[in-house]
Amino acid sequence: MKKPLYLILILITIFTVCTDAQTISGTIKSDAQPLSGASVRIEGKKLETSSDQDGHFQLQLAPGTYNLLVSYIGYTQQVQKVNLSKGQNLKLDLMLKPGNYMDEVVVVSSRKPTKISEVPGTIWIVDNQRLQEQIRAGVSLKEALAQLIPGLDAGPEGRTNYGQNLRGRNVLVMIDGVSLNSTRNVSRQFDAIDPFNIERIEVLSGASAVYGGGATGGIINIITKKGQSGPTAFTTEAGARSGLKQKNDLDIRIDQAISGGNENFTGRLGIAYQKNNAAYGADNKQIFTDITQTDLQYNQSFDIFANTEFKLTTKQTLKVNAQYYNSGYVGNRDLFLGTNLAGLLSNPSLLEMRNGFVSSVTPQTSRASINADYHAADILGGQDLYVQGSSRNEKFSFHPFPAQVRNASVPGGGILYGGSSTQRTQYNALKAALTKQWSAFNITYGVDADNEGFNAQQTLFDRTATATSGGLINNGIATTGRYPGYTVNSLSGFAQAQWNLTEKLSLSGGVRQQRLNVSVDDFAGADVQALIAYGLGQTATPIPGGKNHYDVNLLNGGLVYKLSAPEQVWLNYSQGFSLADPAKYYGQGTYQLVGTNWNLLNGTSVSTSPLTGIKTDQLEAGWRHRSKIINAQLAAFYSWSDKNLAIVPITLAVNVIDQKQRNLGVEGSLQVNLPDGFEVGGNGLYIKTQNKVDDSWKLQTVTTASPSKATAFLGWRNQSVGFKVQGFRSFDLTDALDSKLKGYTTLDILGNVKLPLGTLSFGVQNLLNKEYQTIWSQRSQLLYKGLATPATFYYAGRGRTYNLSYTINY
User: Fold this and answer.
1) Are the C-beta atoms of residues 505 and 559 closer than 8 Å to each other?
2) Which of 413, 606, 726, 798 would disulfide-bridge 546, Cβ 3.0–4.6 Å?
3) Which conformational region is residue 356 in: left (phi greater than 0), alpha (psi within -120 to 50 degrees), or beta?
4) How far apart are alpha carbons 784 and 344 in whole angstroms?
5) What angle do CA 104, 110, 111 make, to 5 degrees?
6) What separation in angstroms does the CA of 516 have from each of 42, 65, 282, 578?
7) What's the CA gap between 719 and 725, in Å, rounded?
8) How far is CA 138 from the centre of its chain?
9) What is the pLDDT of residue 793?
């Protein structure tokens, strides 16, 4: 944690130093519309910047004559010759004309910059304008991504993104190419960064052999905002969100960024603060706190993100990023479970939100990370070298939650107690890749090394105080183990090549060889540790730990055929690999009290029941057309695996079973830019997940299967004003056991107005004030069935909610 904070203090000092220089500034527009993110660079020099959301840019230069190169995706590049004399401040208004087609460069597909037209796969780009349009209108990051990424499930409205899959399988989430996932899947990847610090998001749908473990459903790479060269620049943003239900129904956010630099150094420091209060449903009642995965009501978050880039030579760059993120509960209001927990156990009418909540453990997410990226061009025979080193230290604390232990050795057959877990992960990685380009052939190859360590404890609460207060008073009396600790060491080698067979046809393929060594600690079951803490027995026989080794080969191959410059079709095959959560798999056992010792009768150990990895195969065929008028993409996919992940209700322990699973479906998106500033479009996913049972395919349980969904929007904008109406639909889903997820529909309005100074953004979510139950709420009622009344886990969707944000760049 100290290293990122030290770096941030250094950056603050650097950013406040501004040297005298000649200045070129101005705005970049197209058809009177400002272009955000347009590239401005000086020909022959390593000096460049990009335009802000108002189309404004600024560069500092020595006196002289220069060629200014201005470009933007989908537009024809403009070359502007300028003469700059000493002390001159030159202002330009530049107009770009639309080109014939769009061809962005992405990294997510092959770990090096690659044009989308050359990728044999489904790529989605969430640019800064579309993302901030959602965020500044009050839409949360998880929900915004569900609106903008066709294959991604609806986002839960609490802290967790549990079950928010991509094409029905796990998604690997990264920040600037650094994984946020860990083997212990805590599902807080989107509770990791404030959107204020995000520049754009690249998404690769489907299994990926390029990145290895975790990428069975696809990859979401969050790319952060970078500094711009020139005098010190500032961005200030403030916003408020409310449903206007009660005086405590108010969320506020304040963001500040500072950036600057020169020809050899650029940097940005962004600080984002958000304070949430109560949230209300369409029925004007406060939404119950999510006691399962923790909530975001009465939550306060800080995101401090520092981004730097050093140009060491004309062919070498070093980027260093550091972040400290903290998001935790700060209130005293929570879900009252009834005196002696009667509302939890039998009488749901007693459940209500009340003041008076206290806990020895604060529900919280905390992360400190640092990573460095080094790039050297034209070395070792004309190759490019990319090296990345990263380190992340994170701590997750959960809401107090009831646990029920049933054991014949306990008087009465069992006990009910309250506990709260704290889980820590330390992650370190070193990755190196070389890439070489010939006229019609290129290859990227390299090595990845990862180390991950995990441990978890739970704080046990005074049972009498918890019960009599209805779960509001949670005073810790003991700390015990929650899951077995483990370490995972991974070493992988990979190679990825592309061959342009003709001007229109290209072939790509690759291989990844991944080795994982998992070491699990000895562990006495969490239940018996709790029983000992409450005075039942004194010792327990641990479940043996041990070591396990995995050796996995992953392949991929694809063809891209260019029908025209903006239009391609593709076909690909790829494999992905995932390792189920060792903490949720190992350490499960059955015990019997003999004297004062809990004897182990049987348990899940490394030697007797080694955890098996799951390899996923995928076939995909797709078509895309990317121009300034029409941006469309359609892909059909079929993925399968010989093993399946089964979740044990209540404990959420996992088992890997020998059962075939398949996902098949279609995802697509369409955006049409019409005359006079109108745009219309939408996206959708049709998916079916099945398991093979007794030689026939059955629908996968709704606790893990993804529902189909669709979105649609209609927008209009001119130079000063923009509006958009968008609708979201999550469809009903039923499984082989007739369990059901009920779908819902929401309608939002987004908009912005450019003021003489800054931009005012506004939004209304759930415009029609529809009552609905979130997907996670419906799943949790099934997962925790038998532990509590279903109403305990009824989390309504937020009712009609208004948002105002003001942004100014100066």
Assistant:
1) yes
2) 606
3) left
4) 12
5) 95
6) 46, 56, 48, 11
7) 18
8) 18
9) 97
Domain tally for the chain? 2
Q: Looking at the structure, tell me whether residues 40 and 167 fall in a common domain.
A: no
Segment 384-406 mean pLDDT: 95
**Which of 208, 163, 205, 166 has its CA nearest to residue 188?**
163
In a domain? residue 124 = no
Q: Which domain holds residue 38?
A: 21-95
Does 463 share its domain with 604?
yes
Convert 106-172 into a string of H (helix), E (strand) and C (coil). ECCCCCCCEEHHHCCCCEEEECHHHHHHHHCCCCCHHHHHHHHCCCECCCCCCCCCCCCCECCECEE
Poorest-confidence range of 103-107, 214-218, 455-459?
Answer: 103-107
Mean pLDDT for 674-690 is 96
Examine the domain organization and report whether 87 and 178 are in the same domain.
Answer: no
Please give the torsion angle defined by the CA atoms of residues 245, 142, 395 and 705, in that order, rounded to the nearest 10 degrees.
110
Residue 795 lies inside a defined structural domain of this protein: yes
Q: Are residues 639 and 777 in the same domain?
A: yes
> Interior CA angle at 20 toward 69 and 62, to 5°?
40
Cα–Cα distance, 793 to 279 (Å, whole number): 16
- pLDDT value at 75 more than 50: yes
Which CATH number does the domain housing residue 28 bear? 2.60.40.1120
Q: 330 CB contacts (<8 Å, ≥6 apart)?
A: 275, 298, 299, 300
Instruction: Decide if 753 is inside a domain.
Output: yes
Which secondary structure element, helix H or strand E, spans residue 338, and what is its range?
A: none
Least confident stretch, 29-43, 254-268, 460-474, 517-531: 29-43
Residue 342 sits in a domain of what CATH number? Answer: 2.40.170.20
Closest CA to 735 of 704, 706, 703, 700: 700
Find out whether 199 and 376 touch, Cβ atoms under 8 Å: no
Query: In angstroms, how far is CA 578 from the centroid of its own chain?
Result: 17
Please tell me the distance from the alpha carbon of residue 630 to that of residue 673, in angstroms, as a whole number: 7
Please report whether residue 539 resides in a domain. Answer: yes
pLDDT for position 99: 61
The H or E element containing residue 736 is: none
User: How far, in Å, CA of 725 to CA of 764, rounded?
Assistant: 10
Residue 786 has pLDDT above 70, yes or no: yes
Is the same domain home to 717 and 799?
A: yes
